[in-house]
Fold this protein.
Amino acid sequence: MSTHDLTPSEPTLSEPTMPDAVTTPDAVTTPDALTVPIAPVVPVVPAMSAAPQDAPAPVATTATTPTPTAPAPVAPARLRVGTVVWGLVLALIGIGVAAIGAGAALDVQAALIVLLVVAGTALLVGAIVTTRRNSRT
């Protein structure tokens, strides 16, 4: 059905019509538009929690939750032999690079061989000492 087939008494989308009598206070009538109902505007606000986002969630305590009487004894932290040896290896490599950069004559191959022999020996001795110490306790 096209708009040319319509009779003049039928409204079209391009021709707004006015209702005969609109007296309700919930509607607004303009001279060139249709009756527009006025609905209350309710803003949509996301739900906010009472607790801040950074605060930890409260923990519920029940009768079945055991309460610790005394904290468990914590063994003092010991240095690990491997960590100490590899830290020394890196420090000695850094000192060697700085010495070469400063102009010192250094046989790099011999220095690396000596460094690896000393580091390997330190790792082996440290592992043996740690094993003997742990076996006595």
Q: What stands out?
A: The radius of gyration is 43 Å. The first strand starts at residue 27 and ends at 28. Residues 81-136 form one domain. Strands lie at 27-28, 36-37.
